[in-house]
Amino acid sequence: MSMINAVNSTSNAQSLNVRALNAFSDNYIWAIENNGQVALVDPGDADVCIHYLDKEQRQLNAILITHHHADHIGGIQKLVEYCHKKQWPITIFGPAHENIPCCDIKLVENDQVSLPALGLTFQVIDIPGHTLGHIAYFSNDENEPLLFCGDTLFSGGCGRIFEGTAKQMLTSLTKLANLPEQTTVYCAHEYTQANLHFALTVEPNNQDLIHYSEKVRQLREDKKATIPTSIKIEKIINPFLRSHVHAIQSSAMAFDKNIQANNLDTFSAIRRRKDQF
């Protein structure tokens, strides 16, 4: 295991804040703030980030990338140029097995990313499936553990399997489901309402899912975000974390009569069904 440090900026620690920056139609770029210092997660749109940094008078310290898709990396080059003009030191972290522009530190499973300016340390988790090199950043704070998981786990759903296999994606999601239940989950898209529409077709009698869907409906009617979520919530309402549950397996076999009642066949069947939903 290696310890990897971003550029340090000495300051008195204040309370950590995670802010959503809206980008494109449904992306969230996450700004992790502490005492005027910021780390950005998956900044696909530089202009949104620069507007926020200027308006809030924040200094960008680090960029954390989960995977190589354009809506996650598209703003890196412009943000690096912006920081150079400001004479701010900046460190770019990203997955070792993907082509990330300007990447200073290439990360693999169990690396630790230390952000001293923010008072944070992240453990890197390999979560292939959506892309082959996809990683997540997990901060195991005993009071409020944090997870930035890109496009692997969504509230009520999971990412499409573009490069990996269903087995890889299920393994990745199982890793995340095994994190502490109080972990706050910051995913990269506002897909919750659509995901829950599908989830209700898979597990229509799940009362927790029904109640959560109503809560999400109200949030979206009020134009409020449904993210962050938590591991605890997702284990109760997300069918892609519940392929071991009999009701989910029964639904999967109704979708595809050729599968077996096991976790992988169940997960694969409901993922295929979601792709066509």
UniProtKB/TrEMBL annotation:
<keyword id="KW-0479">Metal-binding</keyword>
<dbReference type="InterPro" id="IPR017782">
    <property type="entry name" value="Hydroxyacylglutathione_Hdrlase"/>
</dbReference>
<dbReference type="InterPro" id="IPR032282">
    <property type="entry name" value="HAGH_C"/>
</dbReference>
<feature type="binding site">
    <location>
        <position position="69"/>
    </location>
    <ligand>
        <name>Zn(2+) 1</name>
    </ligand>
</feature>
<feature type="binding site">
    <location>
        <position position="72"/>
    </location>
    <ligand>
        <name>Zn(2+) 2</name>
    </ligand>
</feature>
<feature type="binding site">
    <location>
        <position position="130"/>
    </location>
    <ligand>
        <name>Zn(2+) 1</name>
    </ligand>
</feature>
<comment type="similarity">
    <text>Belongs to the metallo-beta-lactamase superfamily. Glyoxalase II family.</text>
</comment>
<keyword id="KW-0862">Zinc</keyword>
<keyword id="KW-0378">Hydrolase</keyword>
<protein>
    <recommendedName>
        <fullName>Hydroxyacylglutathione hydrolase</fullName>
        <ecNumber>3.1.2.6</ecNumber>
    </recommendedName>
</protein>
<feature type="binding site">
    <location>
        <position position="71"/>
    </location>
    <ligand>
        <name>Zn(2+) 2</name>
    </ligand>
</feature>
<feature type="domain" description="Metallo-beta-lactamase">
    <location>
        <begin position="26"/>
        <end position="189"/>
    </location>
</feature>
<dbReference type="InterPro" id="IPR050110">
    <property type="entry name" value="Glyoxalase_II_hydrolase"/>
</dbReference>
<dbReference type="Pfam" id="PF16123">
    <property type="entry name" value="HAGH_C"/>
</dbReference>
<dbReference type="Pfam" id="PF00753">
    <property type="entry name" value="Lactamase_B"/>
</dbReference>
<comment type="function">
    <text>Thiolesterase that catalyzes the hydrolysis of S-D-lactoyl-glutathione to form glutathione and D-lactic acid.</text>
</comment>
<feature type="binding site">
    <location>
        <position position="189"/>
    </location>
    <ligand>
        <name>Zn(2+) 2</name>
    </ligand>
</feature>
<feature type="binding site">
    <location>
        <position position="151"/>
    </location>
    <ligand>
        <name>Zn(2+) 2</name>
    </ligand>
</feature>
<feature type="binding site">
    <location>
        <position position="67"/>
    </location>
    <ligand>
        <name>Zn(2+) 1</name>
    </ligand>
</feature>
<comment type="subunit">
    <text>Monomer.</text>
</comment>
<dbReference type="GO" id="GO:0004416">
    <property type="term" value="F:hydroxyacylglutathione hydrolase activity"/>
</dbReference>
<dbReference type="InterPro" id="IPR001279">
    <property type="entry name" value="Metallo-B-lactamas"/>
</dbReference>
<feature type="binding site">
    <location>
        <position position="151"/>
    </location>
    <ligand>
        <name>Zn(2+) 1</name>
    </ligand>
</feature>
<comment type="pathway">
    <text>Secondary metabolite metabolism; methylglyoxal degradation; (R)-lactate from methylglyoxal: step 2/2.</text>
</comment>
<dbReference type="InterPro" id="IPR035680">
    <property type="entry name" value="Clx_II_MBL"/>
</dbReference>
